[in-house]
Amino acid sequence: MAPRQLRREVGIQHHDVQKLEMTHICSKPILIGPSILNADLSQLAVVCDNLLNSGADYLHLDIMDGHFVPNITIGHPVVASLKKHLPCKAFLDLHMMVSDPEKWVENMKAAGASQYTFHFESSKDVMHCIQKIREADMKVGLGIKPKTPVTEVLPYVDLVDMVLIMTVEPGFGGQKFMADMLPKVRYLREKYTNLDIEVDGGVTLKNIRDCVEAGANMIVSGTEITSHEDPASIIKLMRSSAEQLFNSTFTNQSTHTD
What we know:
The protein has one domain: Aldolase class I (TIM Barrel). 37% of the residues lie in helices and 16% in strands. It is built from 10 helices and 8 strands. An 8-stranded parallel beta sheet has the order 1-8-7-6-5-4-3-2. It is globular.
């Protein structure tokens, strides 16, 4: 991608473009969170428990209201019921693809959410939403859609725990991975070494290394995992692929330092 096109696509200024070719693997552990969007929702508790037992680090629950995105999934009553059937330590990352995300903070906290990830584009007052989530004692995630410049989140990065870079248009599972979103990840990792950066959409065994190399440390994968006959094996393979890149990079850095 040409520098001018790159700047137009991800909202990055000229003096930052050259940095994007660098590898910015995060030193934080790689976490894999299956999305249950395309899972069998009639067996949601069984599916989620199986995913956790198969090695998932957390669960990514897609909450859609039919307004912000053209699809409807589950709400806080289902999350609350699900939580009762999962281990107490299960980390639930709620991806709130809803209009007026402030409206559901208290309900999702009561339902058992661990992290409340809302979209920059959906909130009329991003700062207020962040504060409300903090007051509810949940971790804060801030997501952006593919067409939103990454620079839009910069005023809020120091106030959140995680930034979510969508690698598909939100609303439906099973879409093709948008590799041209990875410069956003690289840009953020260059600026914020300790920030949790999550990628979501079309992530598979074939492209997880690209995500990690760009600097993502939280990996959401839906169809690749939930449609596999053996979720444990695909999670293990994805983790191995990511950690091999992680380990080789830091081994090389240590060797060069010595």
